[in-house]
Design a protein that fits this description.
The protein is α/β, with parallel strands linked by helices. The chain has nine helices and 15 strands. Helix 3 crosses helix 6. It is globular. Bound molecules: zinc ion (ZN).
């Protein structure tokens, strides 16, 4: 019998054409709602052999022997093994189940959880570090006159030393205090056949803003983390978008290790359309290592011992990513 109830018709249509009709690359069933495609948490859980439980009033937790993945209800925040990852769109209740958008699953959560599945065609030898600003462009300046351009150069050299000790080839886009355009930075990375590109920065804002964060390129049609809900996000596919999955792995590895080494506030893996990320010829991330306008963090970065911790965190993150690339070949 042909259903006449419009809700019932829609439901039946949905069962035929939506559930499982466009499975994500990982083969997980998706559902269509509100003009988007969603992946329900209770479809993600069995895929990773995880148990799904409610953790407090606002959190859903997926857990197996190796990983804990947590989502906040009606929020863009999610945590993998305690590291904050910003989703493009909030986790929402879709019908009776909590679900995240397809793009957030495919281009962020899944690569962070199964890096080896996304890095097969990439290399792991040449690292290009990009100390931000330089020369006439001093970058941010703290009340006690910590210059961003000098701070990030100090950290870049420390990261270089740590990675060279691991047998990697490391180049800096600038190795002195010279002015360098943004486009020249990524051109140099391309010329040197970079396998990954890390731009190093420090932030400035209010006196109370604090913590370290790692930016990766926004997805085509996806919001930048700080631009959420403002207009329609651009659909442009930039050269850096060729590496969306690898960018997610790299961002996660750096942020995870940076926070572990420094114990600073975790501001998470975020997305932005920064020029160096758009034009990167390889997987890329931009690290904002601290807020030098916050007296507490200014006092930290003045200490060489803390700069050494920042450098160790970044170097460990790079090494973890490169290890993921090597594992993907097995
Ligand atoms: Zn900067």
């Amino acid at each position: 019998m042909r259903p006449t109830n419009p809700t019932l018709s829609r439901l039946i249509l949905c069962l035929f054409f939506c559930v499982g009709a466009s499975p994500s690359e990982a083969g997980i069933r998706t559902i269509a709602a509100r003009g988007s495609t969603y992946v329900p948490l209770n479809n993600i859980a069995p895929y990773y052999n995880m148990q799904l439980t409610q953790a407090g009033s606002k959190r859903m937790r997926l857990k197996n022997r190796w990983h804990i993945l947590e989502f906040e209800t009606n929020s863009r925040r999610c945590w993998l093994n305690g590291t904050l990852l910003w989703l493009n769109n909030p986790m929402r209740k879709t019908g009776w189940q909590w679900a995240i958008e397809d793009a957030d699953f495919e281009k962020l959560v899944d690569p962070a959880l199964r890096p080896y599945a996304f890095l097969k065609n990439l290399s792991a030898q040449i690292v290009v570090l990009d100390p931000g600003h330089g020369g006439k462009d001093i970058g941010a300046k703290s009340p006690r006159k910590v210059y961003e351009k000098l701070l990030v150069m100090d950290v870049a050299k420390r990261v270089r030393n740590l990675l060279k000790a691991r047998g990697l080839t490391v180049r800096l886009t600038r190795d002195g205090d010279q002015t360098l355009s943004l486009s020249e930075r990524t051109k140099r990375a391309a010329r040197w056949n970079a396998d990954l590109f890390i731009s190093l920065h420090a932030d400035s804002a209010t006196k109370t803003a604090e913590g370290a964060g790692t930016f990766i390129l926004s997805l085509p049609n996806g919001y930048s983390t700080h631009g959420y809900g403002k207009g329609k996000p651009p659909a442009t596919k930039h050269p850096g978008n060729r590496f969306d999955s690898a960018n997610a792995v790299l961002g996660f590895r750096i942020q995870q290790n940076l926070i572990k080494a420094t114990r600073q506030k975790d501001r998470g893996v975020k997305r932005a359309r920064f020029q160096v990320l758009r034009e990167a010829p390889c997987p890329a991330a931009l690290v904002e290592m601290a807020f030098i306008t916050n007296p507490k963090e200014e006092a930290l970065v003045i200490q060489a011992s803390h700069r050494a911790k920042i450098a160790r965190g970044i170097a460990d993150g790079i090494a973890a990513y490169l290890n993921d690339v090597k594992r993907s070949k097995k």
